[in-house]
Amino acid sequence: MSIADRFSLDRFVQKLREKGLGGLPVWAFRTYIYRRSVAVFLERELDIPPPLKLRSGVEIERLTEIDERRFVEHFPRHIEVYRRLLDEGCVAYAAVLDDVVIGIGWWADHDFFDAEVYRHTFAVQPHQIYQFAGEVAPKYRHTSAALAAIRESWRLFSDQGRSRVYAISDLENVTSLKFHRHVGFEPSGKALVTYRLFTRAWSVERPLRPSELEVWHNSTARRQRAPAGQVAQ
């Protein structure tokens, strides 16, 4: 999120309506002054699940350049960041429909400094891959585009002799936690604590605490269907 976005009047008014006067000071403090967040390190074997049936016309391709024309419809604000990531040697796979990128994922096979979110260097061992970002255009989020791109990248890295893939997910981002659980990730025992003071951010790795592991389990628990006549708890 850009500084302009964070300080926009429209955003402030929206939060005033959502939080009310009582909750607004806390939100403003956490958004504009100081925030502490905890993310969990996740890992899984780099095996290749069965191929997916994609929507007709969708193709998965590895990107070697960022053609602005293909990104402007769904991801116009990230074009320059994408170009920088490619220049840094990161690997990108995209889901493409009618020559328009509808989803994209990013991986690093080397130590990677995250300058956008965590301001932290993620170490990548010779047997590992770091899966650090992904986006799907809203209208395509309930398709198999993201999973298909992930499978293609894993196939590439597996062929190169890599055996593990790891990622990181904020414990407050339930959607992200559930997605990573869905594709087979589990906590590896580490956490990343990120501090933000005004526009400055820094992060520290430490062991994952039992209470944080409980957040993971509670957020990703698969709800069981209740028998007829009963309500699921």
Question: What can be said about this structure in brief?
Answer:
It is built from 7 helices and 10 strands. The protein is α+β, with helices and mostly antiparallel strands and 233 residues long.
How would you characterize this protein structure?
By secondary structure, this protein is of the alpha+beta class. The chain has two domains: 36-45 and 163-220, no CATH class; 47-161, Aminopeptidase (3-Layer(aba) Sandwich). Helix content is 33%, strand content 32%. It has seven helices and ten strands. The protein has an eight-stranded mixed β-sheet with strand order 2-3-4-7-8-1-9-10. A two-stranded antiparallel sheet has the order 5-6. A hairpin with a 2-residue loop joins strand 9 (186-197) and strand 10. The longest helix is centred in the N-terminal third of the chain and has 25 residues, at 9-33. The protein is globular. The two termini are 36 Å apart. Mean pLDDT is 83; it is low at 1-7 and 224-233.
> End-to-end distance, in Å?
36 Å
The CATH topology of the largest domain is Aminopeptidase
Strand order of the largest sheet: 2-3-4-7-8-1-9-10
Going by CATH, the homologous superfamily of the largest domain would be Gcn5-related N-acetyltransferase (GNAT)
Helical coverage, percent range: 25-40%
For the record, the CATH architecture of the largest domain stands as 3-Layer(aba) Sandwich
Number of individual domains: 2
Mean pLDDT: 83
Keywords:
single chain, 233 residues, Aminopeptidase, two-stranded antiparallel sheet, disordered N terminus, disordered C terminus
